[in-house]
TrEMBL record:
<dbReference type="InterPro" id="IPR033856">
    <property type="entry name" value="Trp_halogen"/>
</dbReference>
<dbReference type="InterPro" id="IPR036188">
    <property type="entry name" value="FAD/NAD-bd_sf"/>
</dbReference>
<protein>
    <submittedName>
        <fullName>Tryptophan 7-halogenase</fullName>
    </submittedName>
</protein>
<dbReference type="Pfam" id="PF04820">
    <property type="entry name" value="Trp_halogenase"/>
</dbReference>
<dbReference type="InterPro" id="IPR006905">
    <property type="entry name" value="Flavin_halogenase"/>
</dbReference>
<dbReference type="InterPro" id="IPR050816">
    <property type="entry name" value="Flavin-dep_Halogenase_NPB"/>
</dbReference>
Length: 497
C-alpha cells in the first residue's frame, strides 16, 4: 500500500517554491509539515514581474490585504499588454483582460463587429473594451462584478524578489520551515525508485514523503535524478535567450505591459513603482548578444540602472511533470517565454491542481496520470497561443520573421486559425487559460479578421446595429471620464507611484 504523505519537501525558494509553500501551508498545513530548502549561493532567476488576473485568486486564498501587497512588492496595476510592431511595423494593438462589447446568448460580440465592418461601418473593436479605454489613458479604479461587460479585470506588475520575500514571511508565519543549503545528492528507495531524502553539501539530510521540485531550469530532482526527459519546442518558438536590465522611472505609470517586436525577438517594458523592468527576448540564431544589447539599451525609456544580464532558456516542457513522488513546479516543469506572462500563472495552476489531487493517503498512479494529462494540455494551449503571435504576422523585414511566418504550426492551432478566419468561430479547450476574448484580440490585432459572421448577428437591421454599437461604445466610455489615473489610485491605496 502507498505510504501516506505527512512531510512535503519543497526544493527551491524562487517564486515557484514560495508560492507552493504559502498555498500548501494555507490549504492543508494542518495535515502535512512543510520544509523548503533554498541555496543563497545559487539564488533565484530574479525576473518574472508581470502577471495575469488569476493571481487575484492566490491572494484571496492566502487572505492577503491588497494595499499591503501593493506596498510590499512595489506593484502596479496591469489591465492589458500593448503589442507594438507585431502584425506589421508601426501597428499596435492591446490584448486586454477585458471583453469587448456585450455578448448575446450563443453569439459573441465579435460577430456583430464583423457584420458591422463588412457592412462598411467605421467601428474599432477595441472601442468597446473598458480595459482598453482605461489602459490607453493610464486610468484605473476597482470595478468588479459578475457581469464581465462592466467589470475591469486586472493583474499586477511586481518586483519578483520582493514578491518572493513577501511569500516567504507569509509561509514562515504559517509554520513552513526554511533550510538554507545546497543540495548535493538524493537518496532513492531501491524498490520503488521514490526519493526518500536529500543530502546537503554540509552533510545534513532532509527526508520527506512528497518532493516538490522548484529548483528552476536545472530541474534538480525531476531531470537530474528522475531523468524524465524534456520535450523541446524550439522549432516553433526559436527565441532562446533573454537580456534583462532595470531602468529609472519618471513617466506616468502605464497600466499595461509593453511588448515591442524587434528584428529578431521582442522587448518587454514593465512599470513598477520604483523602476521599470526591461528585457529583450531573442533568438541567438538570428541575433548576437552585442546586437541584442544595442537594441535593448537603445530602446529604454529611462537610464539603465545596471549592466544587462543574459538569461539563456530552452522552450519546452518536462515529459512528465509529476513522476513517482516528485512534482515539478515552475521552471523545472518547463518554460514558455514571457510574452503573455503565463509562467507565474502556470505555477499557481500546478499547485492548485496538486492540491485538488493531493495524495494524502498515498500516491496513486491514476492521480499522477490525470495530473500529467491536465498539465500537458495546459502547457500546449499556452504554447499555441504564443506561437500565434509570431506566426500571424505580415512582417518580412528579417529572416527571423520570414521563418516564423512560413513555418508549419501545430495542427490544433492551424485548424483554430483557419476556422476563425472563415467563420469567426473559435474552438475552446476547457484547460486553455486564454478564453475567446483573448484569442479574438490577438487574432484580429495581428490582422486575421473573420470573413463571415454568425447568423444570430443578422438580427438587427443595419441602422439599428449602427445605433446599438454607438450607444454601447458611449456606455463603455462613460465610467472612464471620471476615473483617476493609476498613479492617483496607487497613492491613495498605499503605493508610492
Ligand atoms: P528560480 O527563481 O530559478 O528558483 C530556483 C530555486 O531553486 C532557487 O531558490 C535556488 O536557490 C534553488 N536551487 C536550485 N538548485 C538548488 C540546489 N542544488 N540546492 C538548493 N537549492 C537549489 N513569468 C511570468 O509570469 N511573468 C513574467 O513577466 C515573466 N518574465 C520572465 C522573463 C524571463 C527572461 C524569464 C527567463 C522568465 C520569466 N518569467 C515570467 C518566468 C518566471 O521568472 C519564473 O516562472 C519564476 O520566477 C519562477 O522561477 P522558479 O521559482 O521556478 O525558479
Amino acid at each position: 500500500m502507498a505510504a501516506a504523505i505527512k512531510k512535503v519537501v519543497i526544493v527551491g525558494g524562487g517564486t515557484a517554491g514560495w508560492m507552493a509553500a504559502a498555498l500548501i501551508a494555507r490549504v492543508i498545513g494542518e495535515q502535512v509539515s512543510i520544509e523548503l530548502i533554498e541555496s543563497d549561493e545559487i539564488g533565484i532567476i530574479g525576473v518574472g514581474e508581470a502577471t495575469i488576473p488569476p493571481i487575484q485568486h492566490v491572494n484571496a486564498v492566502l487572505g492577503i490585504d491588497e494595499a499591503e501587497f501593493l506596498r510590499e512588492t512595489k506593484a502596479t496595476i496591469k489591465l492589458a499588454i500593448r503589442f507594438d510592431n507585431w502584425g506589421a511595423i508601426g501597428e499596435s494593438y492591446y490584448h486586454t483582460f477585458g471583453s469587448a462589447g456585450r455578448n448575446l446568448a450563443f453569439c459573441s460580440f465579435h460577430h456583430f463587429w464583423t457584420r458591422a465592418r463588412r457592412a462598411g461601418m467605421d467601428v474599432d473593436y477595441w472601442d468597446f473594451d473598458l480595459n482598453y479605454l482605461c489602459a490607453r489613458e493610464g486610468k484605473f479604479a476597482k470595478i468588479q462584478g459578475d457581469d464581465p461587460t462592466w467589470s475591469l479585470p486586472y493583474a499586477y506588475h511586481f518586483d519578483s524578489s520582493l514578491y518572493g520575500r513577501y511569500l516567504r514571511r507569509y509561509s514562515e508565519r504559517l509554520g513552513v520551515v526554511r533550510t538554507e543549503g545546497l543540495i548535493d545528492n538524493a537518496q532513492r528507495d531501491p524498490e520503488t525508485g521514490d526519493i526518500t531524502s536529500l543530502t546537503l553539501r554540509d552533510g545534513r539530510q532532509v527526508a520527506g514523503d512528497l518532493f516538490i521540485d522548484c529548483s528552476g531550469s536545472r530541474g534538480l530532482l525531476i531531470q537530474r535524478h528522475l531523468n524524465v526527459g524534456y520535450e523541446d519546442w524550439g522549432h516553433w518558438l526559436p527565441c532562446d535567450r533573454a537580456m534583462a536590465v532595470p531602468s529609472a522611472r519618471f513617466e506616468q505609470t502605464a497600466p499595461y505591459t509593453r511588448s515591442i517586436a524587434h528584428e529578431a525577438g521582442w522587448q518587454w517594458r514593465i512599470p513598477l513603482q520604483h523602476r521599470n523592468g526591461n528585457g529583450l527576448v531573442y533568438s541567438s540564431r538570428h541575433c548576437s548578444d552585442d546586437r541584442a544589447a544595442a537594441i535593448l539599451l537603445g530602446n529604454l525609456d529611462g537610464e539603465a540602472l545596471d549592466e544587462p544580464r543574459i538569461i539563456p532558456f530552452r522552450t519546452g516542457r518536462a515529459r512528465r511533470q509529476w513522476d513517482r513522488n516528485v512534482v515539478a513546479v515552475g521552471l523545472s516543469s518547463g518554460f514558455l517565454e514571457p510574452l503573455e506572462s503565463t509562467s507565474i500563472y502556470l505555477i499557481q495552476s500546478a499547485i492548485v491542481r496538486l492540491l485538488h489531487l493531493f495524495p494524502q493517503g498515498g500516491i496513486d498512479d491514476r492521480v499522477v496520470a490525470e495530473y500529467n494529462r491536465q498539465s500537458q494540455i495546459e502547457y500546449e494551449t499556452v504554447r499555441d497561443f504564443i506561437i500565434l503571435h509570431y506566426h500571424a504576422t505580415r512582417r518580412d523585414d528579417s529572416a527571423f520573421w520570414r521563418d516564423l511566418r512560413a513555418m508549419p504550426v501545430p495542427d490544433r492551432l492551424a485548424a483554430k486559425i483557419d476556422l476563425f478566419r472563415r467563420s469567426g468561430i473559435l474552438t475552446q479547450d476547457p484547460l486553455d487559460i486564454f478564453m475567446e476574448p483573448s484569442w479574438v484580440q490577438v487574432l484580429m490585432g495581428q490582422g486575421i479578421v473573420p470573413a463571415a459572421h454568425h447568423p444570430l448577428a443578422d438580427g438587427p437591421g443595419d441602422d439599428e446595429l449602427a445605433a446599438q454599437l454607438r450607444q454601447l461604445a458611449a456606455m463603455k466610455r462613460e465610467p472612464v471620464a471620471n476615473m483617476p489615473l493609476q498613479d492617483t489610485f496607487l497613492k491613495a491605496f498605499g503605493g508610492q507611484a
